[in-house]
Design goal:
33% strand; 24 strands; Rossmann fold; 5-stranded mixed β-sheet; alpha+beta; Jelly Rolls; 2 domains; single chain
Length: 433
């Protein structure tokens, strides 16, 4: 049986991608937790406190697997509005107006995978797929691992279930362990990345991790590039089925521009003991390290104004809250002055957009050489006697919503009009010597 790592495929990147750039900036927040319909209704994720990560969540009506479900029409409406979109947030909470990930990572809880996938609807499931494809990462435990696959298989049965309602962001099959209300040990793979992303004090064995109807990766159908990060260890345990040595934690990253998917068949997410939270921390950090590399919106041309107003075209879409739009321009020899101008659009000029420029790579607020962070949209930057070469320009939206926890998790107020993006115009004019 194959237990360790399947080879990773190198992927050719578009010319506008810069692989050395920081992929931790330009997100609204770090983590979005899906505690939605048919999932465990957790409101907290202890590992985010440990790692100092910002988080928001959708939490459906609390339910029990042994009693009639109490979900209401409001659960369905609220979940669809958040994940699929609504008039005030047409792209949904996961995505910016240009389709880029609004959070660095989604964490999906355990529960009923197929039923939660069905409750998302096809538009919601597609938004999840778009989120990963555009660079957002994903961590799922138990049901969150099941639903990330292309379908579930059972030992001794050839049929595959739940293919219609699963996300397919890890294009392999999950296998049901058949173990309910139990605990297993977990062995980290020697030399694997989990030990690089958190300190386990030299230990490779986690003694007790909750397991309730979970899964493992079917290595016979696993796509190339799947990494096995940890294995079940069940020797000497009185369990209904022996799953010793089967993949408990695995990961997949389809390309440099897509996010990393990390899946776990068990339940370390709610525990606060040192070993379980260390496992969660390592998985979260490895997922976040796999965020897709940022890309350029376009190469600007001197004397031409680019209008970022078209929500139907990602290359010309408005900017979202706390998001960067990246551009570049080649400045020729003999240029006396370069003037970068940012302009507002009528009836959309009461937002705060910042303007940055750099020669060394994408221009972020903390390392840009030139910046203009005055209030409002309209502003400019002047670069006197620029050296010839490529310059990077960024537009950052400082206006954001006000968030608070409500009955169903996050609730937005204040500048909710920013959710559909802030349109603007940008241009660069060059003066010769």
């Amino acid at each position: 049986m194959r237990r360790l790592i399947l080879s990773v495929v190198a992927v050719m990147l578009p010319m506008v991608t810069i692989t050395a750039q920081d992929n931790t900036k330009g997100y609204y927040k770090d983590v979005f937790m899906d505690s939605g319909i048919m999932l465990t209704s957790y409101t907290e994720l202890p590992v985010t406190e440990l790692l100092g990560l910002s988080m928001e969540a959708f939490v459906s009506t609390k339910h029990s697997y042994t009693k009639p479900y109490k979900f209401t029409l409001t659960d369905t409406i609220r979940q669809r509005e958040l994940i699929s979109g609504s008039p005030i947030d047409e792209n949904g909470i996961l995505l910016y107006p240009d389709g880029q990930p609004r959070f660095r990572m989604v964490y999906m809880n355990g529960g009923r995978a197929g039923r939660h996938g069905a409750s998302l609807g096809e538009e919601g499931r597609q938004n999840y797929r778009d989120f990963i494809a555009a660079g957002g990462s994903y961590l799922g435990s138990c049901a969150g691992a099941f639903v990330a696959s292309i379908g579930t298989m059972k030992i001794g049965k050839p049929e595959v279930s739940n293919t219609k309602h699963y996300l397919g962001i890890w294009p392999g099959h999950t296998m049901s362990t058949g173990l309910e209300k139990s605990y297993t040990a977990v062995d980290l793979v020697k030399g694997g990345p989990l030990t690089e992303y958190f300190d386990f004090d030299g230990r490779m064995h986690i003694d007790s991790v909750r397991h309730n109807g979970g899964c493992y990766a079917n290595l016979e159908t696993a796509p190339e590039g799947t990494e096995i990060l940890a294995l079940y260890s069940t020797k000497g345990r009185d369990l209904e089925r022996d799953i010793d040595g089967l993949p408990c934690v695995w990961a997949y990253k389809g390309s440099e521009t897509s996010g990393r998917v990390v899946l776990c068949g068990s339940h370390p997410e709610a525990a606060r003991d040192a070993e379980n939270i260390a496992l969660m921390a390592a998985m979260v950090r490895y997922a976040l390290a796999g965020n897709g590399t940022p890309t350029l919106k376009a190469e600007l041309r001197a004397g031409q104004t680019r209008e970022m107003t078209d929500r139907s075209n990602p290359a010309f879409a408005p900017v979202g809250d706390r998001q960067y739009h990246h551009f570049c321009i080649d400045i020729p020899k003999g240029t006396a002055k370069a003037v970068i101008t940012l302009e507002g659009i009528l009836d959309h000029d009461d937002f705060d957009l910042y303007l940055f420029a750099s020669r060394t790579g994408f221009a972020y607020s903390d390392d840009a050489t030139w910046c203009n962070i005055l209030q409002g949209v309209g502003k400019s930057l002047e670069i006197i006697a620029p050296k010839p070469g490529k310059y990077y320009i960024s537009v950052f939206c400082a206006t954001s919503v006000t968030s608070a926890m409500g009955k169903y998790g996050v609730e937005y107020s204040g500048r909710t009009d920013v959710l559909n993006g802030v349109p603007y115009k940008i241009s660069v004019n060059l003066e010769s010597r």
